[in-house]
Design brief:
Elements: H1 17-23, H2 33-45, H3 47-50, E1 56-61, H4 64-73, E2 81-86, H5 89-100, E3 104-109, H6 118-127, E4 133-139, E5 141-142, E6 147-148, H7 151-160, E7 166-170, E8 189-193, E9 204-209, H8 211-216, H9 229-237, H10 247-263, H11 265-285, E10 289-290, E11 302-306, H12 313-324, E12 339-343, H13 350-366, H14 375-387, H15 389-394
Parallel strand pairs: 2-3, 2-4, 4-7, 7-8
Antiparallel strand pairs: 1-9, 5-6, 8-9, 10-11, 11-12
Helix pairs in contact: 1-10, 2-10, 6-7, 10-11, 11-13, 11-14, 12-13, 13-14
The structure holds pyridoxal-5'-phosphate.
């Protein structure tokens, strides 16, 4: 039988049937007025998951990495200084991308499992009295370690140092699933991708730029062409595209945003919290620990679980895939072999999460992990029984 199991990797996520259908469209003319009538309101509605009314949203044919490149090439010039913290694989890769573009990156190295280092950001900014730092980079949800950072506190650190740098935030694995407040947090560039909270196939980088970032676009000297936001925003305002759009993905995005807004973003966030909390209860019942060093750092879209000494998490993930046809995320970079990740974002329900927890248990038991079969499932069941959204709607 064809594998019908959901995936539990932290993106690409499961694609709802409704979105699969929406992405499957016959060719239609992207230069027609009809395209504009669909696209202009979509760009408007996309502001909601970003939490912005002041910023403008652009949709590039790319993945999240293209969104990172868009953020920096449109606002910075060769040799500019940026301040970034490294606390996982994705913060590392964004730093690497900046360095390859000739930026001078001041890196604050943190333990993997930590979040954005607020005090270190504040100190570095306060010490930068001649304001050489042009941008502060932060990954809101570090997918490699299951850590959510406090972006509002990063903004407070910048304000406390009275520093004029821009704030760029990677929301690739949070936007559309977890609360993101671009305007309130004073974020100047925010980056998302179609294959995470938007539940679509990979292929779109969705970027929001504040008025301050858009002003920086006019003087930034880093070379850009395909990712030039000036072209994209000018075209988007008229309901068109500077080149051929990925029309199927954009149709899918229209439907995805419809789904998110129909559920209500607060409900979407609450659902992700509830599902994540059930997974965390399961991990505790197994007697295992998450990678996030403090409970307030726990991500609601992905849980990274440390395996006991002497076990190899890559082997576990491969075993679960080959034996039970279920995919979890492996550990990346310096945590390779040490943790596995349960992705629970996008199209996910309590019941789906239970199947992932049960499968992880079976695979661990098969491989001799010291866990009790059913313990994690029972702990999550108790939590979901007490907090079921469906039950709450009926009362
Ligand atoms: N940022 C985060 C937090 C991610 O999780 C990912 C991918 O998983 C990326 C950036 C890179 O995005 P992409 O692989 O879509 O280029």
């Amino acid at each position: 039988m064809e594998n019908q199991n959901p995936v539990f990797i932290p993106g690409p996520t499961n694609i709802p049937e409704r979105l699969r259908k929406a992405m499957s469209v016959p060719t239609w003319d992207h230069r027609s007025p009809e395209f504009g009538r669909m696209f202009v309101p979509l760009l408007q509605d996309l502001k909601q998951p970003f939490g912005t009314t002041r910023g403008d949203v652009a949709v590039f044919t790319a993945s999240g990495t293209g969104g990172w490149e868009t953020a920096i090439t449109n606002t910075l010039s060769p040799g500019d200084t940026v301040l970034a913290a490294r606390y996982g694989m994705f913060s590392h890769r964004w730093i690497d991308l900046c360095e390859r573009h000739g930026l001078d990156v001041k890196v604050i190295d943190c333990g993997w499992g930590e979040g954005a280092p607020i005090a270190a950001y504040r100190d570095a900014l306060a010490a930068d009295t001649d304001h050489r730092i042009k941008a502060v980079l932060s990954v809101h949800n570090e997918t490699a370690t299951g850590v959510r950072s406090d972006v509002g506190a990063v903004r407070e650190a910048m304000d406390a140092a009275d520093h004029p740098a821009m704030l760029f935030v990677d929301g690739v694995s949070s936007i559309g699933s977890m609360e993101f407040r671009m305007d309130d947090w004073g974020v100047d560039m925010a980056v998302a991708g179609s294959q995470k909270g938007f539940m679509l196939a990979t292929g779109l980088a969705i970027v929001a730029a504040s008025p301050k970032a858009q002003a920086a676009m006019e003087t930034a000297q880093l070379p850009r062409c395909y990712f030039d936001l000036r072209d994209m925003l000018a075209a988007g305002g008229k309901g068109s595209y500077p080149y051929t759009p990925a029309i199927g993905l954009i149709e899918g995005l229209r439907e995805s945003v419809n789904m998110l807004l129909a559920e209500g973003l607060d409900n979407v966030h609450a659902r992700h919290f509830r599902i994540a909390e059930g997974v965390r209860r399961a991990v505790a019942a197994w007697g295992m620990e998450v990678c996030a060093r403090h409970p307030e750092l726990n991500s609601d879209t992905v849980t990274a679980i440390m395996v006991p000494d002497g076990f190899d998490s890559t082997e576990l993930v491969n075993y679960a895939n080959e034996t039970y046809g279920v995919s979890f995320g492996i550990g990346l970079g310096q945590v390779a072999g040490q943790l596995f990740r349960i992705g629970h974002l996008g199209q996910m329900s309590d019941v789906m999460a239970l199947s992932g927890i049960a499968t992880a248990e079976m695979a661990m038991k098969d491989l001799g992990y010291p866990i009790e079969l059913g313990s994690g499932v029972a702990a999550a069941q108790e939590y979901y029984r007490a907090n079921s959204a469906v039950a709450q709607r009926k009362t």
